[in-house]
């Protein structure tokens, strides 16, 4: 059926924009989930794969400054960092360690070898080489793209107007810790390797003490990194520390990493702020997924109905939904129907995701409607705690945050029957998308709308599907494994068991 395609839109008149652009958050509500897990796990991201990068970057910047004071370096600071990242990828290759910067590059065997088998780092690392030959496209490497925000958060590094990175006092301490943890000869040889650009294969054994998974427990470097992760934040928040306690306890009881959030939702403990925080995060995720499921149905119907008029689209979509909601009493208002909706939220959410995978958007949206009503009932039961958590963690103003979102999409319609509820909910979702898309247009004029309304008819631009956010749990697992709280067998070490045993008794 006819559609607007994002890859072949052309300008048709002088006022046209730069074209349509894809985006993963068409309703503009996922950032509330991101803000929530950022509060729960500050200081790391989904892309900061190993905590030792924090200390090694500080050491590298300090080494560069010391060398530069003696005589200005011919190797630019950015390339110095980039060579380190590629050298580390070579050093870590084949060791079974995930989330290492440059691994994909090494996998594709693009690195340049000299005749003696040594690696010539500039050919794959330096920014000046052709983009299809270097391991990373961004000039500042993964350091600037992935790690800089966390290093700034911990007050380790700053970026000056000359576009050069400088260490702060805490960063200098961490750099000193690395020097105490790794012998001088190894450090000097590694730095010389970055300056010359030549990494000899026989040096890989010598440089093992610098590997990402070789932090020595009890060393000054370990102590500093451990305190950064485990101790309360500078704002006195203990949510990350509490999350670590809950995470380790769950692993100890056999919960797999990917099930942590789901398990936390069903085992919420209101006396532990982080426990309630993960329950709250899950509520945000379910709300977002429900709204995005209904939005997917609307997009699908635009296509199926061959670019219908808006009233036809809304009427036909409502009709399809009512057929799947025939068990609900059509004469009762939502305020009474919520007593009939008793699904377990966690199980219903899993069912919804499975239905979406089958692309049955009508069935998915019918379940999403029930789940939205069930979520409002959950909100009523925990309103005080939910509102307090939002206020205490400065989340109240986040678009799509649970308390605000559930009122916007359900709370305003409690006095309406299910039919009138759909009459208001469906255009509300369409209007919210248009508002978000236009607000995101910005100065580059990219159009983020997934449908357009022209001459009384609606045209599909791009089909979008609901998606979940990724709440930093895998990065936390890597950090705890690097610090030896979790062994290579994914079991807790004595260090972790001692942390659990003494938790709250310090």
List the topology elements.
Blueprint: E1 19-20, H1 31-40, H2 52-70, H3 77-92, H4 103-107, E2 119-120, H5 122-125, H6 141-153, E3 157-159, E4 165-167, H7 169-181, H8 184-196, E5 198-199, H9 203-206, H10 220-230, H11 239-252, H12 260-266, H13 273-304, H14 310-324, H15 334-337, H16 345-357, H17 361-381, H18 383-392, H19 402-409, H20 418-439, E6 446-447, E7 451-454, E8 457-460, H21 473-482, H22 494-502
Parallel strand pairs: 1-6
Antiparallel strand pairs: 2-5, 3-4, 7-8
Helix content: 40-55%
Which class of secondary structure composition applies to the elements?
mainly alpha
DSSP helical segment count: 22
Outline the biggest β-sheet: 2 strands, parallel
Question: How does the overall form come out from the CA principal axes?
Answer: globular
Radius of gyration: 27 Å
Mean model confidence by pLDDT: 92
H-E order: EHHHHEHHEEHHEHHHHHHHHHHHHEEEHH
Low-confidence stretches: 8-18
Going across the biggest sheet, name each strand in turn: 1-6
Distance between the termini: 66 Å
Quote the beta fraction.
under 5%
Number of E strands:
8
Question: Keywords, please?
Answer:
single chain, two-stranded parallel ribbon, 54% helix, 22 helices
Provide a descriptive summary of the structure in words.
This protein has 506 residues and is mostly helical. It is 54% helix and 4% strand. It has 22 helices and eight strands. The strands form four sheets. Strands 1-6 form a two-stranded parallel sheet. A hairpin with a 2-residue loop joins strand 7 (451-454) and strand 8 (457-460). Helix 13 (273-304) crosses helix 14 (310-324), helix 13 runs parallel beside helix 19 and helix 14 (310-324) crosses helix 17 (361-381). The radius of gyration is 27 Å and the shape is globular. The termini are far apart. The model is unreliable at 8-18 (pLDDT under 50).
């Amino acid at each position: 059926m006819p559609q607007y395609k994002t890859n072949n839109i052309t300008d048709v008149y002088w006022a046209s924009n730069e074209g349509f652009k894809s985006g993963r958050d068409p309703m503009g509500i996922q950032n509330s989930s991101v803000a929530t897990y950022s509060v729960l796990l500050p200081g790391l991201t989904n892309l900061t794969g190993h905590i030792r990068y924090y200390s090694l970057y500080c050491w590298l910047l300090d080494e560069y400054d010391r060398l530069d004071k003696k005589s200005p370096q011919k190797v630019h600071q950015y390339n110095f960092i980039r060579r380190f990242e590629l050298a580390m990828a070579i050093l870590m290759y084949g060791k079974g360690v995930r989330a290492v910067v440059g691994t994909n590059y090494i996998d594709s065997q693009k690195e340049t070898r000299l005749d003696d088998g040594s690696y010539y780092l500039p050919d794959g690392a330096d920014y000046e080489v052709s983009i299809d030959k270097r391991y990373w496209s961004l000039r500042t490497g993964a350091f600037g793209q992935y790690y800089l925000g966390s290093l700034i958060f911990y007050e380790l590094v700053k970026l000056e107007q000359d576009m050069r990175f400088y260490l702060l006092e805490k960063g200098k301490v961490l750099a000193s810790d690395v020097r105490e943890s790794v012998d001088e000869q190894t450090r000097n040889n590694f730095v010389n390797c970055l300056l010359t650009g030549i990494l000899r294969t026989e040096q890989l054994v010598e440089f093992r003490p610098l590997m990402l998974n070789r932090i020595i427990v009890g060393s000054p470097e370990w102590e500093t990194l451990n305190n950064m992760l485990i101790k309360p934040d500078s704002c006195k928040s203990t949510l990350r520390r509490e999350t670590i306690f809950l995470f380790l306890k769950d692993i100890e009881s056999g919960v797999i990493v990917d099930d942590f959030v789901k398990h936390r939702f069903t085992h919420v403990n209101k006396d532990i702020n982080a426990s309630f925080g993960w329950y709250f995060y899950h509520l945000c995720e379910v709300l977002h997924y429900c709204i995005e499921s209904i939005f997917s149905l609307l997009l699908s119907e635009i296509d199926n109905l061959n670019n219908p008029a808006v009233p036809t689209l809304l009427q036909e979509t409502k009709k399809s939904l009512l057929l799947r909601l025939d068990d609900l009493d059509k004469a009762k208002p939502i305020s009474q129907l919520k007593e009939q909706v008793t699904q377990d939220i966690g199980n219903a959410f899993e069912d919804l995701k499975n239905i979406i995978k089958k692309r049955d958007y009508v069935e998915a949206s019918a379940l999403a409607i029930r789940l939205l009503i069930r979520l409002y009932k959950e909100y009523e039961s925990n309103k005080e705690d939910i509102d307090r958590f939002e206020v205490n963690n400065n989340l109240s103003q986040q678009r799509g945050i649970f308390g605000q979102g559930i009122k916007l999409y359900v709370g305003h319609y409690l006095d309406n029957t299910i039919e009138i509820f759909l009459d208001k909910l469906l255009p509300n979702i369409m209007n919210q998308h248009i508002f978000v898309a236009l607000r995101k247009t910005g100065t580059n004029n990219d159009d983020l709308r997934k449908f357009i309304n022209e001459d009384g008819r609606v045209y599909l631009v791009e089909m979008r599907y609901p998606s979940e956010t990724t709440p930093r749990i895998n990065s936390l697992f890597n950090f705890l494994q690097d610090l030896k709280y979790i062994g290579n067998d994914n079991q807790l070490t004595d260090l972790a068991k001692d942390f659990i045993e003494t938790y709250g008794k310090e």
